[in-house]
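Q: Okay, next protein. This is ATP-dependent RNA helicase ROK1 from Penicillium cinerascens. I've checked the sequence twice, so it should be correct. Can you predict the 3D structure?
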Amino acid sequence: KKEEAPILSKKEMKRVRRMYPQPLVSFKELRSKYKISSRLAENVAEQGFTVPTEVQLGTLPILLGDSSIPMENEAEPDLLVVAPTGSGKTLSFLIPAINKIVRHHHSKSDEHGILAVVVAPTKELASQIFNEGRKLVAGTGVKITLMKKGMRVVDQDEEGDVNVLDEESEASSGSDEEEYSKPKKGQTNVPVTKSDILVTTPLQLVNSLSANQTMPMGRLPLVRSLVLDEADVLLDPLFRDQTLNIWRSCVHPDMRVSLWSATMGSNVEDLTRSTIKERLEDLGQKSDK
Ligand code: ADP
Ligand code: MG
């Protein structure tokens, strides 16, 4: 009656444990266990949520990387997440993406440019994500930009930094943009900001990337976190090509993609697998040379 053989052997259990860190217990652990930026932790606390939702419990430890558990293959996996509408997916991807950038800034890296891209299928969704992100980055030094019509992603300042330009000048740059600088003589584009995070619809980003003909593929060379929100929609035929173009523009070897959705058909899983495989093969070929 008792002493049923365990489904997994001890060794297998160990492996699974390593692949899937323990769920988060409370938001306090973000600071105590996962050592996220103190300011970011304060901003999360400020939201007033008492208990993390299920999807937050599960994904935050994976994306933040529990340093006490050595991950088997990579420091951070690519991730495909299915959780119902209203379950708090936005915080689940924003907190790790922002924290990674804070760490990046602290690492004295001289890379400056877009380090994270969040793609959502509609302007309204992008705008909601941006507003949540704005609250979370306050005081962390991380800059977040909502892509709008007329903005362009360019890689053309002296240090080769990737910037966002706003062709519509003052009209849309807004008074809350602290980094706003007056256009220099003969300069038609206004650098809105040296942004770390872009929140965008697929079309808005694809347009702003392809408007710049002088740049070769890999126009988002520094991006470490690519978030595809409502991934089932982003990968349906209407948006698929644009989304895959963006995905393929994120060429950094440490780039990780996460896909988030309330529903996830098998076609999404297949497409995800094949695109990730493509990237890994690409990386393999590069390192062979
Ligand atoms: P989803 O993207 O999964 O549909 P959202 O990220 O838009 O869900 O979150 C839905 C609502 O739940 C938002 O108003 C958000 O502020 C709120 N929320 C997020 N996390 C929590 C939490 N831990 N406790 C209570 N409410 C939360
Ligand atoms: Mg959502």
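A: Here is a summary of the prediction. Strands lie at 79-82, 116-119, 144-146, 151-155, 162-166, 190-193, 197-200, 225-229, 256-261. The mean pLDDT is 82.
Q: Noted. On to the next one.
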